[in-house]
Q: What sequence folds into this?
């Protein structure tokens, strides 16, 4: 009988940060913290946590099964769906889950980078927007002239 190892706190932090605190299933906008700060998500194993679980038929070690690369963060609904004993393995095979995790984390990273770049651009434009010298005219389109 295999022993399921608990997920390390550092792995959970990395998983949560890289997923943006959102369900990784495509089209699911569910945030994993409720407004009061309560946890509304679950961690699904890509290769099952145990050999007799969904997608568990693998030579992956117990340590690798609890590793970051084998985990995907989901809302409670999708976590149950992914691990459903009757349909989870068929609906969510290992390669599909790996690609879904990769795409989700890539979208989160891209969104964060765009937000940072937008903030930088706004900060660079702010001094110009605050220029109230008498020789400077701002048109209706927001373009500085003069």
A:
């Amino acid at each position: 009988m295999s022993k399921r190892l608990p997920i390390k706190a550092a792995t959970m932090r990395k998983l949560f940060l890289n997923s943006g605190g959102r369900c990784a299933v495509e089209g699911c906008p569910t945030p994993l913290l409720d407004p009061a700060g309560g946890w509304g998500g679950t961690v699904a194993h890509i290769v099952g946590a145990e050999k007799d679980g969904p997608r568990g038929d693998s030579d992956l070690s117990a340590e690798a099964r609890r590793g970051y690369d084998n985990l995907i963060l989901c809302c409670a609904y999708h976590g149950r769906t992914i691990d459903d004993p009757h349909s989870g393995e068929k609906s969510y095979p290992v390669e599909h889950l790996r690609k879904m995790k990769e795409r989700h984390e890539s979208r989160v990273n891209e969104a964060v980078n765009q937000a940072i770049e937008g903030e930088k651009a706004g900060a660079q434009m702010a001094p110009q927007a605050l220029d109230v010298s008498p020789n400077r005219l701002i048109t209706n389109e927001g373009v500085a002239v003069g």
About this structure: The chain has five helices and four strands. The longest strand covers residues 41-45. The chain has one domain: 9-145.
